Amino acid sequence: MAKTTVVLTRDDWTGDIVDPIDIAPKQITTFTFNGREYSLDLSMSSANELAAALAPWMEKASDVNVVGRRTRKIKAGSESSSETDPEERTRIREWARDNGYEIGPRGRISEAILQAFENRDHTPQNTIDTAATPEPAPEPDPQPADDDTKPTPAERAAIRQWALEQGRDVKTRGPLSPELIRDYRQTHAA
């Protein structure tokens, strides 16, 4: 016997059941007011009505970018920040690993790392606050050039950094090519 499950979306504003072709772009509209976050399931017409009602207020308001649970005001004249973008978080994590910070593959990025990343072009390396800067990651042990062992996370970061310095194409995430690993190990075997 076949079963069919039907999911209906009800517009939280009008109470009407929403036709699937009339669902607002992200289906759930979220907004924050006085530090509290709200969400609504809205049809396209209700989402437009909400946007029209808020438009005069948004014209006068300052943009705020949400990072984790904290908010930070965007500097006047700057483009909107993309720190909440997954690709940008990946770049921040790669940069942090390359610069000796302890950071996991997922989860919240600490404020100290975010600030260091934002100031990376403005702060000389020798003036970074050592209280906020962790010990640098140990250099990977040199391995024989013919070694087929999988690189450690620290070695992967070093290989990516080396490849970028050499002008080679390398992805910020994912597996490294065996040729790239071999070339790196041959260059650094001494």
Automatic annotation (TrEMBL):
InterPro entries: E3-bd_dom_sf, Lsr2-like_dimerization, Lsr2_dim_dom, Lsr2_DNA-bd. Residues 72-106, 120-190 are annotated as: Disordered. It comes from Nocardia aurea. Residues 85-118, 154-186 form the Lsr2 DNA-binding domain. Pfam families: Lsr2, Lsr2_DNA-bd. This is Histone-like nucleoid-structuring protein Lsr2. Residues 1-63 form the Lsr2 dimerization domain. Residues 87-100, 180-190 have a biased composition (Basic and acidic residues). The keyword Translocase does not apply. Coiled coil: none annotated. The keyword DNA-binding applies. Keywords: DNA-binding.
